[in-house]
């Protein structure tokens, strides 16, 4: 379950549980009282389901504490819930009314037809039959057929007296035909060009570079964290002797992360600059959690690399085995071309310009070697802890920096990130990156839309498998929306499906245009800095979107010229550092599935059809050894 989600769920729980009967100094209105009662019910339900899903009470409590001060958001959530229920009830009443009217109409026709069919009512028969054929025109044949059945039908089948399913269970309806939806989406995208445009940003870098601190402090500087919450984080982190991590607490929400002082999973937040609405994916820097980092990077448009400028620390992160280079290579391989490099902790080297220039020079060279264009990379000196040069350069800490730096702040650079173009006419592809039990009897799936458009009420296929499900709600940037397009990081709430069919790595798509499945495919790969050359049959871990599966590089087809793709050698014996090659990749069954089990296929597309669905990463023994694109699906 997503940590982010636990925290969000706990918003309600925390407020109501902790403050039941004592809402601080504030008097509650009757409406709020009612909301609180409803919320408490939710709380019990949520605690129950969190326990069922294996969370211990300590973690739940921790998450509760985390949201302690978010009173306004809680009340707002509850009011929204009430409003949704009201609308659903109104819709239900309108539908029942409509059904009743239809039934009355059918009954009338039935009576007429029955009179017409009755041998004892000859006059009526004639006139009735004439009446139907002459007045009911095209609909008459169906109606007459129904009339016969109608007389035998059990009225309960029409559900007139039924209370119907719980309001929450009412199946969602698609509000727009596809063409109309596309039209509306195009207009909205055009309109957003002049307003705030959305981008998603993955925050990467070596362990302890200050990524979470930077994000926590930035959220505070931008007013997304209030004073109460800041104090709570400060107190909480001091209490366990981790005071220097108080800013990181905002992002590192689980007990284990807080106690260990490291990020372990992707944390999602959003912030807003004058021209951009940014979804932040804070990735772990520790090499043990690279799979989680890859999952975050595969959902991002841009990257923010944080490096630690302190003596010896930059070097440790940048040399072989450090995460700075590996993260840069990974994001580039996953298609991210824009990157901001925040050179952090300059306070540790007395804000020396020479240190900044030295680091900038080394990274710039590596960026060029790794295929980043200089025009799409930018550097900024910052002090995350004291908030220097994030939003402004005010205060005594910033004075030393201002002596030699007059360029943009971090927010200025974020505000200039180029939003991705959206391919809304492509078939929908939604690779699942996270699954958890949502509220309101739906299952929640997090991920990024890789092509197309999705709307509430749509039925989607889940690949691999034969299952489908209905989209009940769509959440984007913490708001419920009717539809969402390519490039958006969203949470889809699905109903009508057994959760066993919802797995990380599965892809949702339209039933009429399903994504291909593959167990063997041809890929063009670029070999990274490997210590042991790759031979045919090498066992590897294949990463595709948020998912990793066992595989082997089953055939080495050719080595290629990196510049023009021409074949240098067919059937090479080995692939060494820096080689570009065409290979066959074959999925293997996992160690748990037994010796004779066949590998489960994964949803994949060629790079030519869908860039995001056609990228793969290859790792071996905890090291990323290659990145590639899918050329052809073999089987
Ligand atoms: N002196 C100084 N320390 C900082 C600064 N920014 C972060 N730190 C410290 O660096 C340590 C690591 O910070 P985090 O934010 O947890 O680092 P991280 O990159 O998110 O760590 P992982 O996600 O676990 O890789 C903490 O002790 C911070 O207080 C800074 O600007 N100056």
Automatic annotation (TrEMBL):
Assembly information from the UniProt record: Component of the Dom34-Hbs1 complex, also named Pelota-HBS1L complex, composed of dom34 and hbs1.
Pfam families: GTP-eEF1A_C, GTP_EFTU, HBS1_N
UniProt catalytic activity: GTP + H2O = GDP + phosphate + H(+)
Keyword Cytoplasm part of the UniProt annotation: yes
UniProt similarity note: Belongs to the TRAFAC class translation factor GTPase superfamily. Classic translation factor GTPase family. EF-Tu/EF-1A subfamily.
One annotated GO molecular function: GTPase activity
InterPro entries hit by this protein: GTP-eEF1A_C, HBS1-like_N, P-loop_NTPase, T_Tr_GTP-bd_dom, TRAFAC_GTPase_members, Transl_B-barrel_sf, Transl_elong_EF1A/Init_IF2_C
CC per GO annotation: cytosol; Dom34-Hbs1 complex
Bias (Basic and acidic residues): 90-110
First-listed, main subcellular location of the protein, grouped into a coarse class: cytoplasm
Hydrolase listed as a keyword: yes
Compartment(s) where it occurs, according to its Swiss-Prot or TrEMBL record: Cytoplasm
Protein name: Elongation factor 1 alpha-like protein
UniProt region (Disordered), positions on chain: 90-133
CDD domains xref list: EF1_alpha (cd01883), HBS1-like_II (cd16267), HBS1_C_III (cd04093)
Gene3D superfamilies: P-loop containing nucleotide triphosphate hydrolases, Translation factors
GO biological process: cytoplasmic translational termination; regulation of translation
Keywords for the protein's UniProt record, in alphabetical order: Cytoplasm, GTP-binding, Hydrolase, Nucleotide-binding, Protein biosynthesis, Translation regulation
